[in-house]
Amino acid sequence: MPASQPARRALGTGREPHRSGVLNIGEVLQELSGDFPQISASKIRFLEEKGLISPQRTPAGYRKYTGQDVERLRFVLALQRDQYLPLKVIKDYLDAIDRGERPEALPGGMTLTPRVVSEQLSREIAGRGRTWSLAELGEKAGAGQELMADLLGYGLLHQQDSGYDEHALGVVKACVELQAHGIEPRHLRSFRAAADRQMDLVEGAVAPLASRRDVASKARAAETAKEISGICLKLHSALVNGDIARLDR
């Protein structure tokens, strides 16, 4: 599934291309490791196996990566990490782009619009991976000290000396919005319990893959876990929306 030339140009981030124009897998890892410290050769080969990238091959069978290949990988990894999208959703989107279509924006607003994606992707990546102290987290989310203390007290946040990430920020922002509707953290303990039960369900489903030692199996386990979690969220939404619809009858 080689990408069309226009689509590949749209994936660039404006970085200087590698001087040889062709990179080996070690050089690709070096290019990506700053934004994605956990990236590995096995993960890249897994993404190739899933059809997200198609590097050229030398006559001897070695992979040859271009700068466009690297940025395509960067795009996929950012969507996986930051928007939690299953690879199938990302692949369907990229396949449509490769066919010259103009699909709707992916969840989170990421698109492959020429000359826009590079700046947008750079901003997305730059804003991810950082952490905040508890005070910084509350300030960024617009939460007062009392609310932050309640979130810790009711288990919606866990004390972390290493700092709080984007997931914690999402929790606090949602709780700030709910508080505006009169819903306090003490009312939300069931969400923590439901999340724990869902995680137990997901971990049980992927246990055979997760127990293997090779990196590719762990990557498959993580991808399967995201897919199952997404389906669970769809089920939850359908059940709640069904109950809400009955209120209007």
From TrEMBL:
Highest taxon above the source species: Bacteria
Where in the numbering of this chain does the HTH merR-type domain appear? 38-96
Q: Which UniProt keywords apply?
A: DNA-binding
Q: Does the keyword DNA-binding apply?
A: yes
**What Pfam families does this protein map onto?**
MerR_1 (PF13411)
Show the SMART domains listed in the entry.
HTH_MERR
Give the molecular function GO annotations: DNA binding; DNA-binding transcription factor activity
Q: Which PANTHER family match?
A: HTH MERR-TYPE DOMAIN-CONTAINING PROTEIN, REDOX-CYCLING DRUG-SENSING TRANSCRIPTIONAL ACTIVATOR SOXR
Q: What is this protein called?
A: MerR family transcriptional regulator
Name the source organism.
Answer: Arthrobacter mobilis
